[in-house]
Fold each of these.
Amino acid sequence: MGCSTALHISRKKLKTVIIDSGALCREASGTNAGTLTLNMTRAALIPYAIKGWELWNSTEQWLYGDVGTISVNGLSLAFTEREEELLIKRAEARKAMGAPIEIVSSKKAQQLEPGLRQSVRSAAWCPKDGFTSAYLTGHAFRKVLNNEGVQIQEYFKVNKIDNENKYFLICNENGEFIKSKRIVLAGGVWLEYMLSLLNIFIPIKCLINQLIITERVEPVMKTVLSIANGLLSLKQFANGTVLIGGGWQGIGDTERGGVEAIPKNLVGNIRLACHTIPKLRFGRMARVWLGLEAETSDALPIIGNVPGFDDAYVIGSVHSGYTSGPYMGWLLSQFITGKEPDMPLFDPSRLLTQ
Amino acid sequence: MSKVIDDNVQKIDVVVLGAGPAGVAAATIASEHGADVAIIDENISGGGQIYRAPPKEYETHDSFKSPESYEGDRQRNYLSNSKVKTYFNYRVWSISQELVVSTISANGLKSWRPKALILANGALERIIPFPGWTLPGVMGLAACTILLKSQFVLPGRSTVVAGCGPLLMSVAYAIVKAGGNVSAIVDLSSKSEWVRVFPKMLSRPDLLLQGMKWLWKLKNEGIKIYNGYTVTKSEKDNDRLAITIAPFNHSGVNTDPKFQKLVEGECLAIGHGLIPSTEITRLLKAKHKYDLLKGGWVPVIDDEFRTSIPNVFIAGDASGISGAFSAVHKGRIAGLSALRDLNMISLKESKHKINNERNLLNKTENFGQAAAYLMRSRPELIKTITAETIVCRCEDVFRAEIDETIVSGAVDMNQLKAWTRCGMGPCQGRTCADSIEAILTSVVGSRELAGQWTGRAPLRPIPIEQIIGDYSYSDIPIPESAPL
């Protein structure tokens, strides 16, 4: 979110510095499943995700780099009657917002995905789904940001933001500071902390998402899969490894980061995956990691002015923001440079607790 | 529906991970003082690497006996005669922050919740890559030891033995004793380096004498010994390996062709020292420090072998390379500290007994430290990793790509991993981490700045079939649905 905002702003000829307490794109951007899916995006965010999908599929035009984007069919599956009801409801809501999603029969679903368990009842099919390799995001962004003259300040842990004379002084724990006319807060799960540095209080929940990757296996699937309840994210990369996600929670917080997985939740997640693609059971679980994801109390993004500030902005908490990231950064860059954004933003002041 | 997830986490006083000399010592002393102890090892029996037992199916033969095999048998008997509960062929795949140890075995999943955890998971072999290091016939020096000592198999009809430390002579001698052929010994250490450590080795005249006996035998066989040389290339030459060696000293590798030599053999056993295995301590987020003479990154410990994590103790080579004899005393100290922290012995008794062990440790440690010095990491060796040499074998990442990625802005190990996939394969970095840390360090200036890869579960790849067991769809506990 921060990188795409910085890129778009810099292209509008504003001198830009990007600051990260660690290395670029190592948090949510680098640890998520990389799914570009309309099936799992909230209905209200579908138009943004569609634009985002288009950007990820044309990275050579704006990112000048590769994050391994693959465009494939996406299927959200129903194995029980209840899931079927849920599936239809969710598909309708997304269709109404412009997503090309269609409910298909079990037979059609198995045609689209031969590796599927045959007892699947029906599926919501979106031909415009896909995925990237999220861990390549940082590399691509860093290159293009560097080339465009954006100053990259990594390992700079901000602990104070002073406001004096129309300038912001962004200070770190070593007493160094960066002076800027405008500031954009794009810190994901740390947005609550960042906003508090400007004396603004908006609660941001920190989800600790578990992800599992297998060793390389033979091709067992060729689509991006999820389940109607939203609890599975499954895809196989070109190198044969299979990524299993879906938002099963581990242990961690904003202070310590991701600490450890909860074995029961690993087993539940993998069982869902094996139920969906039976051949998966012959593989081996190679790695598990945790990604921190931000969520507001109404599960919608905050994009716009920091309440009470003309020159401070905030962007984030999109919940499935990887897909729309590049587009939302663009929208904010329009707003910052005084233009009417192509699509409505999400006013943070709605969530003020005072 | 069969329950494979073991919801029953077994409570116990002490869990010891690793049944090498340190682990056996820690487990038995704790058990002797009344603690309920479980020792877990992924191998078929105790002994670790140094006293690795032959497979049960092998018949023993007197000519295969050695001081080590006797010691190994003695330790194994001591363990089985104790009250320690043993779990062999159990693989630890995760340890939680609350110290719940999760294992997987042919019997399914099993977990323990110990009051104290003692880590004795030993060391890894360091091999600095060079062109041709992945050819068939090239194996690790420590790996070769296992082949010889526990499987009674020669690595090949003729072997070039290369690297550093006492393992060199030990392997060369074992090959010759077994009737094999050693074409050459290529030792990183110069003669003056051996002279430098000689005084420390005097603390164990028996081992020193043994070493000299080996040296005499090897020389007698006419085996050429190159001191101060390293392998810079290995090439296939029909059914043999043509191995190029070059002079190596404190200024580094001398790649001037006129000083190179060529040796050959059917295979090459090479190892550049031992590295403490930090995969568990990193997983638990213990504090570490880089200590060259202890083998590299080691957990920060107090003088009673406590790590920075409460109730987690460490012993043996995992706490710093100092060999099998020191390991026993370190194991006993760790065991006594654990007993002390669990209030199972008095402060007075623990101080007294720990003191005794420490005196013995001080005596034995000198020799181990001399060996560790010879086996230390030598940063200049990364020169042998040419641009076209594979560094991460699991993911086929060449040196050239690593160098470019560092230049493009990956200046810590985790970012480097993200951008190159190094360390993401099945070995989880056990083979390549040290080499890549050394390469990164040569650019960023220190090991501390380069950092280490974040420790993660599973500690070993786990077959999915074993994790999921038998279940039906309705067994899966589905948390709340995502919002519309």
Amino acid sequence: MRELAEAFGLALRMIVTADPVVTEITLRTLAISASSTLIACLLFTPLACLLHFARFPGRGAVISFIQALYSMPTVLAGLLIFLLLSRTGPLGSLRLLFTSRAIVIAEVFLIAPVILGLVISALKGVAADATDTLRALGAGRLQVARVVLHEARFAVLSAFLMGFGRAISEGGAAMMVGGNIAGRTRTLTTAISLGIGKGEVAASIALGIVLMAFALLVSLLVHLTGLRRT
Amino acid sequence: MSSRLRFAAPWLGFFLFLAFAACGEQPAPVQSAEVPVDTVVAVEDTVTGYPPRERVERLLVATTTSLYDTGLWAYMEPMFEEQYGVELDILYAGTGKALEWGTRGDVDVVVVHDRAREEQFIADGIGLSRTPFAYNFFVIVGPPDDPAGIRGMAPEAAMTALHDAATWPFISRGDESGTHAQEQRLWTAAGLEYDSVRTSGDWYVEAAAGMGPTLNMADEMRGYALSDIATFLAYQGDVDLDILVGEGDAMRNVYAVIPLSTARDSVMADNMRAFLISPEVQELIGAYGVEAWGRQLFTPCAGQDF
């Protein structure tokens, strides 16, 4: 109990005084997870539309496979990207290993299934007869996709935020491909795991509180967006 | 169309803000995902006329966790960066993982503590040379009331006592670290087969974790563990464990620096070796920790054969 109270005190102090190390790690973490989310959204929203509207044999199996990948262990994603970027790996010559860009790549890989699968679910939520009506009115494929995407925008947005949440909270991949280098690739989660290793319990909990505060802020923003609509 | 824009614009703005503006606020320490981080420049060596050798802007050093956790690297890093004009990136891992990174060519220098594996690493042609630069000691820690009664024993006798009793938990790192290697050497020195020890019963627990979590586990299970002295001192306030078996030649924990043959900039990699054994840094290593822990953490040992 004393440890927890101490940690909350320390966390508050770190936030109020804008502790330079914590600020730096927090900003880097936000930049990395936001970049990952942005890239994954731009890449995988169109792909999700394609998978939703296209009809081809094995489509159901593909979607089930994507949904199974929601639970891909973060360390496995980290290991695969590590092997890809390692000097002896296929992309070794790019020398991305142990940089923040390597973390972005791993996180895009990690959240791709979440965004794909949840955007497909969001599109499914739009009544099928709406699509039929649009088609009957002579709308082209792209127009149908745009209208349906618009109808499903809140569910699509929460898919993006799920992706952001997974990116900001994962530590296994960031540790493996980023290496937790001070001032370069240290994120909130890897800093927490280092703190635990060093026995700095209060500081670790404080960093955890900072991370949770941002998660809360993001989900509040979603909620407010929803309120403004109704 | 306009409603779609009204909806999307703030969100796009939010993410863009996080992705880019966050880096703009503190350009110096924050590594943006958009800024090139690993620019390599070729520099012609005009003095010798040799073909251009690669100059890197960052030197990657993989160090053992116990050295990292004491804060020694954070202390030495700016000194090295200033002296040699390179950005030093320190990665920490157990000896096994550090050597694996080296084998893959992902780091330029390793700093580890397991002589047998280091010599193999050099025999394999990956490490260039092994230079010991500091040592401290391993200790066996356990509950202060010491139910197994090993306090003050020789290390081999203490290990034998724990094994024969097979009652009180022994928490092993179990992660191929240098400390894990030392534990295996102690079992062998005690005349026991490591593989049979580790399968001899529930008393032997493999944490497969770093030193800190292993000490926590020993504390929770009222068990014993082998630790390096530096990590134990850092943890002393948080765990109810005492040093029961201490210093002695068999418990010497030697840290050595190995530049790699695969280093992208072999001159810079060798600079790290020279730096660690330079008289100024040797003195600094010897003085380090006295203020924070009230005692010397490392004994400098450049030039000695350990």
